[in-house]
Amino acid sequence: xxxxxxxxxxxxxRAAQRTARMISTLLVMVISAAVGFWFGNQYAAExxxxxxxxxxxLEQQNSELQQSVTELRAEAQTANTRFIQLKKDYDAxxxxxxxxxxxxxxxxxxxxxxxxxxxxFLIRSARPPTDCxxxxxxxxxxxxxxxxxxxxxxxxxxxxxxxYGNGESARNEKGNPEAWFDPAKKVTVQFKNGETVETKKGxxxxxxxxxxxxxxxxxxxxxxxxxxxxxxxxxxxYP
Length: 239
Description:
Distance between the termini: 165 Å
Largest sheet: 4 strands, antiparallel
CATH topology of the largest domain: Tick-borne Encephalitis virus Glycoprotein, domain 1
Order of helices and strands: HHHEEEEEEEEEE
Number of domains: 3
Strand order of the largest sheet: 1-10-9-8
Helix content: 40-55%
Radius of gyration: 54 Å
Number of strands: 10
Shape: rod-shaped
Structural class: alpha+beta
């Protein structure tokens, strides 16, 4: 039995086993690396495909945005052109300067009750005044609730036009009403031309014109001395 034992064979077997284990380990490492490399390539390929799809989507979105920007620019240009045209139309229809003041005056006259036909006639017949007289001044007492005197009247055009009016009583220091009017408050002035009576209301000065017997009388009613209103007027040929 002792003659069958071979120590070198034992060492050879151990060396072979170690070699086999090393080879197995190397094979496992190589296979693992190969599998990892393959999975890495697959992942990289999938990521590349994903990035391409994202890039394609972004290009599509960019193209759509560019189209939207182009359309918005076109719409903005159209809107700007329309605005310029509307402004021209507005400026042509809405007057400025003296014309605007005249339009406002016409509107006020109509709102005050002047007949459109009469206003139209006056505008058509308007022309620079001719044959005008020098201004004259008269005065009348402005009646108040506390005034108990006779009615005060200014007569013009040989009595054809009469002017008179009333206002609110002034107050003394105790708050009691006085006989004279308060020029800081509204007054009412009547212009009687034959059987026609025209009324102007407001704070002095007030302006008004009356046509009588082929002449236009132009009046300015101002504050005079206490109790009185002063009438400054002239007349011109009409029309």
